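Troubleshooting log. The previous structure file for this entry was overwritten by mistake, so regenerating from the original sequence record. Sequence copied from the archived sheet and checked twice against the printout by T.R.
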Amino acid sequence: MAMTRRLLLLAGTASSAALLFNPQKSPLVSSLGFAILAFISTYTLIPLLGDAFIKAGFKGKDLNKPGTPVIPETMGAVTAFVYLACMLLFIPFAFYHHFAALTSGGGNREVEIEIHPANEGFFHPFPHNKLGEYLSAILSLQSMIMLGVADDLFDIRWRHKLFMPLLAAIPILAVYYVDFGVTHVVVPMQLRQWLGDLVDLGWLYYAYMAALTIFCTNSINILAGVNGIEAGQSLIIALFVVGNDIPYLIKPLHPAHDSHLLSLYFMAPFIGVTLGLLKWNWFPARVFVGDTYCYFAGMTFAVVGILGHFSKTLLLFFIPQIFNFLYSSPQLFGIVENPRHRLPRLNTKTGKLEQSRVKFTKTPKGITVLLLELLQKAGMVTIVYGEEGEILEATNLTIINLILVRLGPMREDILALTIMGVQVLGCALGLLIRYNFAYLIYEWDHGRKIC
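Regenerated output below.
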């Protein structure tokens, strides 16, 4: 088995090198090479660094396993740093044609210099705006990774870490302001007689993009607690983002071509590192991803959504996360008591996971009782009553527990696969809405009229 693994790694390394230095010098092909390199590096480094992380105190108990084994935690940091290394190394490949063939060099930014008459054409100005976008994205990711590691180190409280992505978003928002500055939105056809074709949101548009970074990072962190689902849901979203990018690349003259090409540059290595992490985090997990990975993954999606100008489409791929946030909000905002851990609990006799419940320290009253009883009537929670009819316990409000309420206890790996199935269905629904129902609201699609 070890020999087979070594041969596969060698074959992967050779394939990566061939793609990196492809004869056409295509940046997109090179990014696929970096994706393979990212997978190999992550897959190899995680088991090598596991013991070192445990000795450094980065460890946690797997509460859903008999005996609660201790395994390395914060392995998302390894994944994130491999990703950053790949993205930095990719810079010369992404701009090779501009470095070597198309620009005048010598710091000439805005001029075109005529070349020798024997070779018709011009040197073109270097795309400093594209490089600025790329570097701002990397800076935002670096900032978010640092904040994620800080959270894993100091276990920052929710009310404090909720807004940490705002700091990391500053570089991409600044570049968006300088290079684009577009803050108007297209008005749905049904409202144009009152609002016109476009509405300028001004600073509210930047508030929306900042909110997007907060949501993407925290929504993945909230939907956690079962082996493999943080990396699994991120992998599925990334694959659907790539699926959304590809149609725009078929037509090089499409106005959204460059934006979706940038998205692919960021998504390909992300898929590579996530696959490498998922190999070790899937049931039975040998490592935990930690908050660092959740923040890193969410910020990666926010970056491509903002710089790729498809933030609304991106949110459609987060339908399960949006539902989970809305379903969890009574506990997140203190309407229903929120325990420290809301993950399912293991029944050691059956070996299956069951819904976890909050045991109320104070008897619920008023709106809390009304909300819980409405959810119970909808079949979305289980309530345990006392002898006098007071509520003693209620299901924790997460989509994971909701699945267990509706489908009953199940093994952890089956539960993880069920959640992944929900993610696939949610993303597929997002694509269906985007490409089959958008024309009911907007007649234009990225500068192209929908017929």
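Confidence is low (pLDDT under 50) at residues 109-123, 446-451. Archived copy saved in two places this time.
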